[in-house]
Structures are given as C-alpha cells and as structure tokens.
Amino acid sequence: MSESQVWDAVDAYFTEHLSPDDEVTAAALRESEAAGLPPIGVTANQGKLLQLLAQVQGARCILEIGTLGGYSTIWLARALPPEGRLISLEYSPRHAEVARRNLARAGLDGQVEVRVGPALESLPRLADENPPPFDLVFIDADKGNNPHYVEWALRLTRAGSLIVLDNVVRGGRVVDADSTAEDVRGTRAAIELIGSHPRLSGTAIQTVGGKGYDGFALARVLG
C-alpha cells in the first residue's frame, strides 16, 4: 500500500470502532454531496474529537465559524445539554440551506442557529447582542481571515474557553514565510497570534488520514 492508502486504512479502522457515522450523520454527508457542496468538511474521527472537546469543556454555548453542510455542527451540537445553544456562521446561502435541512433531520434545529453572511460582518452583530461567553469556538472558514476570527473568538469567550482552528498545515505550506497565498499568510498570522497573545495558550498538531495531510491548532483562553 502507498502511504496515503495506509492513512486511509487506519482512519477507516479508527472510525469503524470509535466514531462510526449513524443514520443522521451519514444522511448529512449524502445530502451535502447531492447538493454539490465541496468535500472539505471534517471526517468522522475529527467530528468525534470536536464532540469530545466540547464535552470536556462542559460547553453550553458553542460558536462555529464555517458551517458548510452542518456535519461538524451536528457533532458539536450533540455535546450540548438540552438548554445549550450553538450559533454557526456560514457565508453561502446555499450551504446554509443544506445545513439547516441536515440539522432539522438530526432534531437539532431548536438548539442550533445558522446565520448567513460574511463572518466578519456577522461577528460584530453577534457581539452587539452581548451573548453569554462561548465555551468553545470552532474556526473552519476562509483561511485568509483566520487571525481576525481568532481575535473575534477572544472577544466572545471567557477564561477557560477553547478555540479550535482547523486546517493549519496547508499541505506543509504553512512553513513558507515567503508565501503570498492568502490561506498560508492567514494561517501563519493566526498561529503567530496564538503564540504571542498574553491571553492565549496554544499548540498545533499535524494529522494524516482520510483528508490527507493536515492539522489543527488548539488555544485555551487565559484570564
């Protein structure tokens, strides 16, 4: 087997035993594919990790930046208590429509609100509502704006909250300090912000698997 085939096989084994899709999450994937959404969402193993992180946090309020078809949203929302709330921000009205159908099928539409529009416009409006601090923020949107999303996450969280930033490896291109690509520049700026900000303590992990070579960053908000 090639290296990538080994990654896929290991991912499939872990998924089968630790995070298999059920009827609801499998239907969300099918619906997203049928609607022509790009296959860039989290894997089942990654979704289960998000769910576990939210549960470890005891999260009652979750913010997601980048909904896509709502697959990661379902994993996160399932970690909430009955009175919990999740707000997900999605740029594309078409993606949001698919996500809302998937969330309704999952029975989570009463706890999850999908807001449509550019996140950098939605976030100030959200802040103006003075919501309770979010216990977990999952950032998986346009990578060029990653540092802005981290800054907004800081404004909308509390000491002890967790920020998860997805897709930080960029196929290894994140190490290229001379890159002019927006995704690389934005990701590097976010990583360096996390590393230098006095209110954040973070790390980043490289991963391999069904989505290839990638990774994520975790940052805990300090007092």
Task: Please tell me about this protein's structure.
- This protein has 223 residues and is α/β, with parallel strands linked by helices.
- It has helices at residues 3-18, 23-34, 44-57, 71-77, 93-105, 119-128, 146-155, 182-196, and strands spanning 61-65, 85-90, 112-116, 134-139, 157-166, 200-207, 214-221.
- Helix 2 packs antiparallel against helix 5 and helix 7 (146-155) runs parallel beside helix 8.
- GO terms for molecular function: O-methyltransferase activity; S-adenosylmethionine-dependent methyltransferase activity.
- This is O-methyltransferase.
- Keywords: Methyltransferase, S-adenosyl-L-methionine, Transferase.
Mind sketching the topology for me?
Blueprint: H1 3-18, H2 23-34, H3 44-57, E1 61-65, H4 71-77, E2 85-90, H5 93-105, E3 112-116, H6 119-128, E4 134-139, H7 146-155, E5 157-166, H8 182-196, E6 200-207, E7 214-221
Parallel strand pairs: 1-2, 1-4, 2-3, 4-5
Antiparallel strand pairs: 5-7, 6-7
Helix pairs in contact: 2-5, 3-4, 6-7, 7-8
